Amino acid sequence: MTKMDKLRRREFLKTISAAAVVPALTSFGANEAAALIVESPATPPLPDIPTCESMRSITMTHKFLDLYAWPGLTNQWGCAQAAMDITAVRSIAFPPFAQGEMNVAPLGSGGELLTGVLYVDGEYFTATKTPIDFVWQPDRVERRSLYKGLELKSVTIVPFRTMSVAVKLTVSNMTKVRRTAEIKLAINGGASKSVKPWNAAYSPGEYDNDRTVDTARNAVLCKAIHSDAYVLQGTSPKPTSILPSWITYEFDLAPRESATIVFVNSLGETAAGVQKEFDSIINNFDAVAKAGIHSGQQDLFRTHTDTCHIG
Description:
The chain is 22% helix and 36% strand. The chain contains five helices and 22 strands. A hairpin with a 2-residue loop joins strand 20 and strand 21. The model has no long low-confidence stretch (mean pLDDT 85).
């Protein structure tokens, strides 16, 4: 057994943290240092083996013009990233499949490729400059904002062993009167399969996918023209209307009443494959999210025990 094996990993990290803090405190006077310590909020002790919840971030509030790195998520096969929005996702990549990041098509250059982009009452939500709270933990990204009497909250996941991203949006009327609301999601394809080296700073994408509305699934199927790739994007419950680029809901909410929309983006090589994966998630968001916590904590346990038994 090595020396590191004898020292509990968490105690080691706490000791290192204390060593970094003490020099900083000594630069203050005694009274200032004492005040700094007293004012620090108490935090619960960290578990010896990390959990998804113990790795949860603080609430990170983005305000207009902030420079900000949006939190991302991974599973065994790929990744996706929350966008500066309540629902939108970007940087979706499950090699060799991806949906691009920068739209390099003619007349489209300079635009980032997002999907599930939120519009509220006809306004592009990001353009309203409304602050957005982000919270990250290994299995999810949570986002929240208040806008014109509406509370907008979402949970984003990348389900284990899938090439999918799912977002659950909850819209709540926080006023004392009934509130109508138009919630619209703009959807983009970008589906591509690239087996060549990904040498660019952004993942590959095709920006001229064929689009077909799948009314039975409340979804739009995007098919790559230049490679074997599909992406199926849709929502539940049934929307008010669905077009090749838009999914629209019209809500009439009583005070404190809420409505929920689940948006799923499934990427793959065949139409049948993305349809099967989409169907397994769209009406099972909570169960899929719970399974992600369990699988994530199993991975954390294996990583911890493997690391602690090296040597």
